[in-house]
Design a protein that fits this description.
22% of the residues lie in helices and 34% in strands. It is α+β, with helices and mostly antiparallel strands and 357 residues long. It folds into 2 domains: 220 residues, 3-Layer(aba) Sandwich (Rossmann fold); 111 residues, Beta Barrel (OB fold (Dihydrolipoamide Acetyltransferase, E2P)), CATH 2.40.50. Bound molecules: adenosine-5'-diphosphate and magnesium ion (MG).
Amino acid sequence: MAELRITDVRKAYGRVQALAGVNLTVRSGALMAVLGPSGSGKTTLLRCIAGFETPDEGEIRVDGHRVATADTSVPPERRRIAVVPQEGALFPHLSVLGNVAYGLDRAARRAGRAAAVLDLVGLSGFQDRMPHDLSGGQQQRVAVARALAPRPPVVLLDEPFNALDAALRAELRQDVWQALRADGATAVLVTHDQAEALSMADEVAVMRDGRIVQSGPPELLYHVPASPWVASFVGDAVWLPAVLDGGRARTPLGALPVVHSEGALPPGPLCVLLRPEQITLAPPGAAGAVAATVVRRDFYGHDAVLALRLADGTSMAARIFDPTAAPPAVGDEVTLRVHGTARPYPLGGHSDSPRDD
Ligand code: ADP
Ligand code: MG
């Protein structure tokens, strides 16, 4: 266990400013996800923490000890930081047990640490297998076990589940989470997958263009995003034009209660954020309900997403979960109701879509 503190870290490759002043603190024993689009600097940040790169400016401290500044760099092998790379990179000529025991001292080997950590990642029966006899998911489990075996206070994982299919990924996430927990390691997980970040992490730091643009618990990022860009990057967003009127916003879906915390909003046109699951179907004629036409239906089993158009032309998405009813079909007329509060943002920011980066 160790606190990780990153202060004003900058790193350029030629004219590319990969890290443009990163500030981030990871509490001892916490799992922090660094979530950002491709090219936002996530791998560069991990490489600076691990010691494979030296920051141009700023400093990195592990449990208060400076491991990296522009002039001092503790070599990677003395940082006690383990790295799980994107693809496991196991030693092909060593067995599973051999791979995991590789970095262990004699005492740890004798104490059966390698077998114990294989058990943690759900591979107790696989000690004598060779890496080429394992599936991709099993190889990643071995890579995680090998990283955890020497009980490093800090574990860094760089998109470790990318190469795996969705079902396997969900299962492995769970097991890795449990293994990290069992060990009490401080962990940083880099990912571009918002579901992975929100579901696994205690805190999520959203990275864009070499900076952390917001960090906090998953619920906060999802419900109180600091900008339209963050809102759209961490989940599906519905943007509606709005005019503030007392404590409410007048929108095409009616007057919605609004909350906004970060100071006063600029005067002028606004948009408000809703999440698609805040829009539900209501019985026709229900108070405050608005009529819409279904223009598209994506059925997912556990829910369905409807693309809807209002009479005034406004389009939006609604996520419908009614386990007892079939979702409406394309062309159906429905009535909509909004649940919860909307969050206002200055108009314009929401067109700055993260998916276009
Ligand atoms: P991410 O992991 O979020 O995809 P990276 O940290 O790999 O982002 O890259 C951030 C930026 O720095 C990108 O523009 C990338 O092209 C650039 N970059 C990363 N590593 C190098 C390198 N060794 N040499 C030159 N440019 C690099
Ligand atoms: Mg990367």
